Amino acid sequence: MEFKRPITRRYPNGEITVIWKPHLCIHSGICFAGLPQVFDPRRRPWVDPRAASSERIVAQVESCPSGALSWARDEAKPVPAPGGPKIE
């Protein structure tokens, strides 16, 4: 019998990433009842992290009773200096 690793989906918006682990989901509906513009199980992908502020999304994700939804702050990507590196 082959072991399959559970699927994890990530939905970034540039500030945070919503992380969904479907194998933990109990389908309580709290996510889409509280923030339907972000969480819509009829849409693909079903999470649109650009549809609300990061603060509202974090608050909603933290109310997930099963732990299937979580979030992480996105790392700031370094912005290169105009014209490339400078040696002085």
Quick summary:
It is built from two helices and three strands; from the N terminus they run ββααβ.
Would you write up a description of this structure?
- The structure is a single chain.
- The chain has a domain of 52 residues.
- The protein has two helices and three strands, in the order ββααβ.
- A three-stranded antiparallel beta sheet has the order 1-2-3, with helices on one face.
- A hairpin with a 3-residue loop joins strand 1 and strand 2.
- The longest helix has 8 residues.
- The chain is globular.
- The relative contact order is 0.23.
Largest sheet: 3 strands, antiparallel
Class of secondary structure makeup: alpha+beta
What portion of the residues fall into strands of 2 or more residues? 15-25%
Q: How many helices?
A: 2
| Share of residues in helices | 10-25%
List keywords for this structure.
88 residues; alpha+beta; 2 helices; 15% helix; globular
Set out the fold topology.
Layout: E1 9-12, E2 16-20, H1 30-34, H2 54-61, E3 69-73
Antiparallel strand pairs: 1-2, 2-3
